Amino acid sequence: MQQQYEGYKDLADSLKSASALLNLERKSQLHQDIITICNHLVNPSFRIAVFGPFNHGKSTLLNAMLGNRTLPIDLIPTTGASITVKYGSDVRTRIMLVDGTEIYRSGTEILQQFAILDGNRQMRKDVASVEVFCPHPFLETGVEFLDLPGTNDRDEQDNLVREQLLSADLVIQLLDARKLMTLGERENLRDWLLDRGIKTVIFVANFLNLLEPDEQKQVQNRLLFVAESFRAELPPGFSNLYRVDALPALRARLKGDVAAANSSGLAAFETALQNIVEILQPNRGSVRLPRVQAIASQIQYSLKAKIDPIALEIKSFDDKQNSKIEIKQKAANLIYKGFTTSIGELRDWLELPKLLTKYQADAAVALAENKFKDWQTNTLKKDLNQLQLSAVKWLYQAYEFFQEERPQDLLISFPSEPQVILPPKPNNNDDLSEPGSIAVGGGIGWLLGGPVGAAVVGSISYLLNKNIQKQDEQFAKESYHQEVAKLCITAIEDYLSSFSSQGLSILTEYERKAEKVICFEFSQEPVEITTKRGNLQQLQNGFNDLLRELEKVKILSNHQPYKKIPKYTNTNRKYSPQPERVKLFPEKDPVIKQQQEKTAKNTGTRVEYVSPPPPPKASPSPRPEEVEAKFRDWELNEEIARMKAEMQSPGSQTSKQQNSTQSNKAPNQPKTQTEKDKITRAYGILGLQTNASQAEVKQAYRTLVKKWHPDLFVNQPQLLKQAQEKMHLVNDAYTILSDK
Question: Could you tell me the CA-to-CA distances from 165 to 146, 148, 291 in Å, in that order?
Answer without folding.
Answer: 9, 9, 10
